[in-house]
Amino acid sequence: MKQTLHFIQYLRSSKGLGFMKKYIITTLLISIVFLCKSQSPVSYVNPFIGTNEMGHTYPGATVPFGMVQLSPETDTIQYSIGQGYIKDVYRYCAGYQYSDKTIVGFSHTHFSGTGHSDLGDFLVMPTTGKVQLNPGTTDNPESGYRSRFSHDTENASAGYYSVMLSDYNTKAELTTSARVGFHRYTFPESTQANIILDMVSGIYNYDGKVVWSSIRVENDTLVTGYRQTQGWARERTMYFAMVFSKPIRNYGCRDDAKVVYTDFYRKFNTTKDFPEMSGRKMKSYFSFDTKAGEQILVKLALSSVSTEGAIKNLETEIPHWNFDLVQKQAEESWNKELSRITIEASEEKKIIFYTALYHSFLSPTLFMDVDGKYRGLDHADHQAHGFTNYTTFSLWDTYRALHPLFTLVQQKRTSDMINSMLAHQQQSVHRILPVWSHYANENWCMIGYHAVPVIADAYMKGITGFDTQKALDACISSSTYAPYDGIGDYMKYGYVPADKSSNGASKTLEYAYDDYCISKMAEKMGKPAIASIYAKRSEAFNYIWDSSTGFMRAKKSDGTFQSPFDPMSTEKQGFIEGNAWNYSLYVPQDHLKLIALHGGNKKFISHVDSLFNVKLDEKHFAESEDISAVGIIGNYVHGNEPSHHVPYLYVFAGAPWKTQERIHQIVNTMYHNTTEGLCGNDDCGQMSAWYIFSSLGFYPVCPGSNEYVIGSPTIDKATLNLENGKNFTITAQNLTDKNIYIQQIKLNGIPKKDFIIMHEDIMKGGTLEFVMGAKPKKLR
Amino acid sequence: MKQTLHFIQYLRSSKGLGFMKKYIITTLLISIVFLCKSQSPVSYVNPFIGTNEMGHTYPGATVPFGMVQLSPETDTIQYSIGQGYIKDVYRYCAGYQYSDKTIVGFSHTHFSGTGHSDLGDFLVMPTTGKVQLNPGTTDNPESGYRSRFSHDTENASAGYYSVMLSDYNTKAELTTSARVGFHRYTFPESTQANIILDMVSGIYNYDGKVVWSSIRVENDTLVTGYRQTQGWARERTMYFAMVFSKPIRNYGCRDDAKVVYTDFYRKFNTTKDFPEMSGRKMKSYFSFDTKAGEQILVKLALSSVSTEGAIKNLETEIPHWNFDLVQKQAEESWNKELSRITIEASEEKKIIFYTALYHSFLSPTLFMDVDGKYRGLDHADHQAHGFTNYTTFSLWDTYRALHPLFTLVQQKRTSDMINSMLAHQQQSVHRILPVWSHYANENWCMIGYHAVPVIADAYMKGITGFDTQKALDACISSSTYAPYDGIGDYMKYGYVPADKSSNGASKTLEYAYDDYCISKMAEKMGKPAIASIYAKRSEAFNYIWDSSTGFMRAKKSDGTFQSPFDPMSTEKQGFIEGNAWNYSLYVPQDHLKLIALHGGNKKFISHVDSLFNVKLDEKHFAESEDISAVGIIGNYVHGNEPSHHVPYLYVFAGAPWKTQERIHQIVNTMYHNTTEGLCGNDDCGQMSAWYIFSSLGFYPVCPGSNEYVIGSPTIDKATLNLENGKNFTITAQNLTDKNIYIQQIKLNGIPKKDFIIMHEDIMKGGTLEFVMGAKPKKLR
Predict the structure, then answer these.
(1) Nearest-CA neighbor of A667 among A701, A714, A624?
(2) Which one, A58, A608, B292, B662, has the greatest CB density within 10 A?
(3) How confident is the model at residue B33 (pLDDT cuts 50, 70, 90)?
(4) Burial, A472: exposed, middle or buried (Cβ in 10 Å; 0-12, 13-18, 19+)?
(5) Which helix (H) or strand (E) covers residue B215, if one does?
(6) How far is A90 from chain B (nearest CA, A)?
(7) Residues 6+ apart with CB under 8 A from A439
(8) Which residues face B137 on adjacent strands?
(9) Chain A: residue nearest B436 by CA?
(10) Directed axis angle between helix A323-338 and helix A347-360, to 10°?
(11) Which chain B residues are Cβ-neighbours of A261 within 8 angstroms?
């Protein structure tokens, strides 16, 4: 790309070229650029995938695993205390719904694909004319600072977003470095061009969520501040430093909170040109004169530690005003990361694949200043020694496929993420690893101690760079913390009794799997006593198997099963975000035993079949959370996580062709290059990581085992460009829409007779060749 | 003291002494200790002076200029938003009123003598029986955790406080180091002994003042946390670390704020034994079993930076559980500071004198961790390099006599205080020195840039240890900051026009004096151009002299005086906390000109006489702020600051005997060894510092001039034990209640004929001998 651009510049600067010549050459070069670009993975990213309805992705600008996610908010619905869960708040987990007609502004922090939310820090919005400090309503945008927009004017690519804000005839462009959001606003001629900074606006907001906010106008271009919120994160403070490319003409604020001490002595008008603005409901504006087409640029750096840290981040990462350069660097950083897997497939599949990879590389997110300082779980400031600190660990989701994907193509970052989780554990007053943590907080969402499989899986795969003894200790500490989520009872009864803790059946199953991971890790570390204890614990699933119904089932502390039993219901049955039908297939650590419990291969296959074939009635469908109507096949819920491994289970029961069918069905019906192209919450990349693995042809059914189960490849060719310098190439010969069945597998040229590929086989580099056909075939 | 104690221990350990012998010797030694103690300055401190009505002092434990002021709250009245100023809130500026019958608890931060307030951080209260988390009411103490008490059981000395909490039959004892409050509670037998930690309670509280608070139970004896308030200080955060001498049996909390995210997933009961308690209205308790007479000790360390800083302060300052030792160290530190002036006087006078000196040495207060870290005005954390950081600068009050007192007997601390103010200025977004600053905040109370006289006075007196160029720059920056309090108009018009800024006449007079200080400083620094500019500015008082009425008077921007004019009124006349009558005597930098304006010595004396002799009518008395009924002589308001220099003005008009009369009158009628012994707010020690100077026999009428004006000594002998190793001894021969007039003055044996003594004369060491008599006498 770089060379091509130089070539264009060279040609353009040549003397003696006539207008037509120039035109032809330019056209030609644009075509070349397009071709060059069309070959780079980054050109296939479509950030709009999943931005409508259930995907909960955002279209804005970010860099891989970046701290800043600078993206538009199309609405800012609030919780009302006492009214509980509000559907509309849920819709705006990522701040954006593609179907909306207005943009409220651009904020700097967003989760990707979550099913609960927070963030939306430091909403910036350019306007013209009279300063308005309320966002206004969708129906009446004039009532506030928001603007109408058209998707015709909207563009998004990896690291870049732009839109025309039609109410203000102002173009907004966004790009970013890791810690600094970069805005470029092209204004019309105006004697009153404004940039709004709304410290109240936020995602999953409610009246009073902002505990405090503070803005300090350091000089006529530099503004610093912070805000502290009490939301999903109980105590979250983010600092910023914001710099304008043009001196502020005048500025001001309004605090909608009624407080005693604003302007207490009336020495100043604290609402106008007073450089210390603070309060609970603080909205501010900065005004300018603009000529037609004049650009005002804004850089806003984040820090979890201090405004000083934010300034340092700003000065280190973007010490200039070259927006285009930053955009190019963002694009290059994406290209570098996405090139870890190069593929051959149709253009459409490439878009879906690389967007899935893009979504997989959004989080966990960087949470550290350029000098290594970060706010810890203990709300104290820490220095990261020898690692990069990350946050946003949605572990119940991501331990399944996202972190295993990282063990293949993000090994260095895996090590950093483990160090981040170990730091969290050290800073935890409970001394446990993260459950669902973000921004120096544990939000306790979902169940399990699934940091354990992430750590054990990495350890088993030979990933280094963290203290393994500390890691094992942290796993043990997390798995024995009695006050948390029924663990005390789990240790006492061998399972989590339904009458002692909610979702006891799910917890029992997931704890048992996590314990398997500890057992494996301890075994490899030469600690047989610990390994043995946890191996025993990993058998806990047996306790809750009800042979009379043929399901896993919630058991009470008196040893009897909970009644009434509805295996299709996800409510009050002891399961979380899944029903007994699905969860009865969750024993990743011991499929032989699972199949035996189900009565052997035939009955097991029949159960898995029933999952796909049963028709969910309306009541039970309504209970299924976080998914769209297309996210479900019978009772198999792909839009949520508990069954993500299920299509692969046929392999263990000797029916791999059934896996092959289902993988192609899911890949082809549930992932699209559309704004509704994700059938459920992307959950920080778990849904996307499932796609990456499955389209490559294998899946980590049991992280910690070092095994991948072969499904069926859906792309023609893929090469994993590994960090150790090796390449591992997967080819799918004869793959068509109909040729979905594996006829032959060769690993490094040698035919394979099973459907398991080991992690070390991949890491050594080599080739995995599939021959595909239209009919199931037994390997020989 | 130390040697005496060693001697007692030695004797007590001697073998062969019979019981009677032991008894006699012990009795003898107690007498010796008593005599020794009775000779030590600390034994004369009565912390109850000023604790009733207007003094606004607190009786609790603190060390000189200490960060912790651990003192009982006898009520916790709140502001109600919308109701404005409430008299009862004002009564509790220091948390304590002697006339009250109940104690709410013991908090760790208090101002001494202020007329507005804040603080009251981390209220701790021991109780027994059912846990109550509301303070309850005075009328019905059973409705909350407060307790009745009797003054019969109450003791207070420098660094120590104790009381019997009769409702709980629990004795509370308090002592402290600089940064750590130390509690000793002696409980009755109880299965439910509680220690309440109320994070909501505070001084000058209002519903919502606590923005956020957080408590973390680190283990079964260590608790850390912080709270953030929005009050007089806009954004104030204090951290603590609290350690119990006995493991906590169980604990819990209640948050009275309605928030969405408390216990969001109901995984824990966050109100019981859950180690992370946080919220806006958080009250917590820690419970124990106690035997009869069992003592539970609590150490609570403060930090402005972090809980880690608080832990470091705790471990460094009190790494043990020896309460008595800390009490002794506190007493010794007071004795050391109070011994900077040793006096001979009646026992009663000694009590008043040393309590005044004690009150003078309470603030500014230490604001820095043991490692030199402190929170700055920019809300960032800073490291103090080469100085000790102080806060609580009530400069409109204290520039008059308190800081000048420090230039004599606290020179090292003066240097530290100046460095602290310079750091404040550097951190200020306005780039100005403190006005009234506390705890990393500017509260903007009162007027003037009176950090300037503090700095200039110290510089003129040769105090070093700060960057003089930076200091001058800071003074210039503060005096030219146009947006602040009419300074822009002051520079434009030469005075602060009454129609442009409130209290314009007071501001004009005080700015002019501050400008004189800059002029003197610049002159000494060899900067004649600057000196000349500020010398000109220092004449601003001329603009507002109204020769037609013979008063200083508010002038409008059109050059006319404001009407109607009421020289007795303190409201809407352009003066703050004073009237024209008083303020017309405020030109400390040029008394000759002032006297000339008044029409010469005779007319001037007559005006000063009238101040003392006029009868204030009820309306005008009611307007006088911050004083008790005895704090006023005619229209001379000693209970507030603007006239503190006035009794000394007779000297300049050739009538020193009138000064001598008034000094004795004020000293004898307005300072007492009673709980109402201060006739107005002590104002961080200004009232007390006036007493110290005046009883010694001289007063700094014009700080910055290096001159002290001789009044009339009221004690027989005093020695200033100076930091340079020199001693300066003042004697008042023949002093009696009637012999109040100076007959002769000898400086180092040489008779003096004027009533001015220079700072350098004192610093050289030597003697100042007064001979007193019953009738006025001219010096010869």
Answers:
(1) A714
(2) A58
(3) very low
(4) buried
(5) strand B210-217
(6) 15
(7) A118, A119, A233, A236, A238, A304, A367, A375, A391, A392
(8) none
(9) A265
(10) 100
(11) 230-232, 234
Q: Is A773 exposed, middle or buried (0-12, 13-18, 19+ CB in 10 A)?
A: middle
Rounded to 10 degrees, what is the CA torsion of B259, B262, B265, B267? -160
What's the half-sphere exposure (Cβ side, CA atoms, 13 Å) at A577? 21
Residue type, A733: Q
Rounded Cα gap, residues A247 and A225, in angstroms = 18
pLDDT, tens digit, for every residue of A649-704? Answer: 999 999 999 999 999 999 999 999 999 999 999 999 999 999 999 999 999 999 99
Question: SS3 of A592, please?
Answer: helix
Tell me the chain A residues in contact with residue B79 when contact means C-beta distances shorter than 8 Å: 260
Closest by CA position to B515, among listed B494, B498, B497, B501: B494
Q: A381 CA to chain B: closest CA distance, Å? A: 9
Taking phi over 0 as left and psi of -120 to 50 as alpha, with beta for the rest, A193 belongs to beta
Spell out which residues of chain B touch residue A443, defining contact as CB-CB under 8 Å: 264
Q: How far is B211 from chain A (nearest CA, A)?
A: 6
Tell me which residues of chain A, numbers 266 to 285, contact chain B at a CB-CB cutoff of 8 Å: 266-268, 273-276, 278-280
Mark yes or no for CB contact A211/B212 under 8 Å. Answer: yes
Q: Which two tokens stand for residue B95?
A: 């948390």
Measured CA to CA, the distance from residue B200 to residue B206 in angstroms comes to 10
Phi-psi sector, B654: left (phi>0), alpha (psi -120 to 50), beta:
left
Q: Considering only alpha carbons, which residue of chain B is nearest residue A441?
A: B276
Provide the whole-model pTM: 0.93
- Placement of tokens 């002697």 in the chain: B98
Cβ proximity of B183 and B301 under 8 Å: no
CB A280 within 8 A of CB A210: yes
Burial letters A41-53, b for 16+ CB under 10 A, else e: bbbbbbbbbbbbb
Q: What φ, ψ does residue A463 adopt, rounded to 5°? A: -75, 130
Contacts by B384-387 with C-beta closer than 8 Å and gap 24+?
B384/B419, B384/B423, B386/B419, B387/B415, B387/B416, B387/B419, B387/B420, B387/B423, B387/B465, B387/B466
Task: Of B208, B210, B209, B242, give the one whose Cα is nearest residue B225.
Answer: B242
Q: How far apart are CA A776 and CA A687, in angstroms?
A: 27
**Contact residues for A431 (Cβ-Cβ < 8 A; gap 6+):** A425, A477, A481
Contact: B264, A484; criterion CB under 8 Å: no
The residues, any chain, with a CB within 8 Å of residue B395's CB and separated by 6 or more, are B434, B435, B436, B446, B448, B450, B451, B454
Give the whole-angstrom CA distance, residue A125 versus residue B678.
Answer: 57
Cβ–Cβ gap A259/B81 under 8 Å: yes
Alpha carbon of residue A430 to chain centroid: 26
CB pairs under 8 A between A and B: 109
Q: Which of residues 291-350 of A touch B (CB under 8 A)?
A: 306-308
For B126-152, the pLDDT digits (tens) are 999 999 999 999 999 999 999 999 999
pLDDT digits (tens, 9 = 90+) for B455-500: 999 999 999 999 999 999 999 999 999 999 999 999 999 999 999 9
Question: Which residues of B fall within a CB distance of 8 Å from A378?
Answer: 216, 307
Which residue in the set B279, B306, B485 is minimally distant from A267, CB to CB? B485
Whether residue B268 and residue A380 make contact (CB cut-off 8 A), yes or no, is no
Interchain CB contact of B486 with A (< 8 Å) = no
- Helix pair B601-613, B656-670: axis angle to 10 deg: 20
Q: Is B8 a residue whose pLDDT tops 50?
A: no
3-state class of B109 per DSSP?
coil
Rg of chain A over CA atoms, in angstroms? 27
- Which amino acid is it at B632? I
Among the partner residues B217, B230, B261, nearest to A259 by beta-carbon distance: B230
